[in-house]
């Protein structure tokens, strides 16, 4: 590993610090530019809360859309039993895996503050052997960059960022995600970007269940002690947003593994979400969304990148948002796979799926997401987002964006 005391390290830290100012400023501006003033965004939040009674189901029973109910029935799954706990059956024969088989009916009240806090990090760790497999295509390992805590309230400083919760065979799990713009439905996006391994187990598994996005999770960055008796508003100020459809790459579905595997270079996903209660779009409610940069710039052309997320594995506990900024290098797991971006960063599991951003012509855009990292948590790697990623995005926007 390259030492932080090497002569080049101070210059790299200086570049990152200088770039950080512009990147954070642009991200902050995005938080207000898309949704008007912060006060207006707060008003939207109040409106969303006020509309819960009006939009709630009269008999208290969750109404599952007909297409989802029909899909469950096709696989021999009883809808009522599913929402009453049947989803906990992870029998291999009932674990839906194919892209067309995703189902995620809303189970209102499932993701309460204590259950969110119990969720374990969804970590994709590569071994030392994996990381050195194709060093001929990889740049030297970057010096670690210490993650820094994002300023609170998060809505004022990194409004598009949040947490993705889901259930796996091992129990509740958590990743990070980003609200992204929907080019076909401007100003009213319900799209979230995260990692493929946060929604699907890859080649040896299927779709995870009860997938929910929580924007500006723990908005004020309160400690575990302060949240010991937290109410829903404290932990999820803009509500829970259930994924009614999710799309990831076929390469991840077929080749993803517990250490990334052949699917790591394609480890991305787009969620279309809807509020557990309320009717406004995610972008309107949060007041922010980011464009996605599908130009797949080379590591040398990309400039400084910043990774945001909620690391949950020690020494972090998943309650606070952190960020790292660094010049990316190339990382490759195989000569047959596209190279990935790699930056120095000490964020751990739980930051998976969190967006990587860069400034393009003064505008902050999502350019990658956290996918894999080493056992000693000194760097992160994320996929380049090119034509394949854009096709996943366009499919979600055109097919589900208008809902």
UniProtKB/TrEMBL annotation:
Residues 1-33 form the signal peptide. InterPro entries: Glutamyl_endopeptidase, Peptidase_S1_PA, Peptidase_S1_PA_chymotrypsin. Residues 115-147 are annotated as: Disordered. It comes from the Bacteria. PROSITE patterns: PROKAR_LIPOPROTEIN (PS51257). Keywords: Signal. Gene3D superfamilies: Trypsin-like serine proteases. PANTHER family: PEPTIDASE S1 DOMAIN-CONTAINING PROTEIN (PTHR15462:SF19), SERINE PROTEASE (PTHR15462). This is Secreted protein. It comes from Streptomyces caeruleatus.
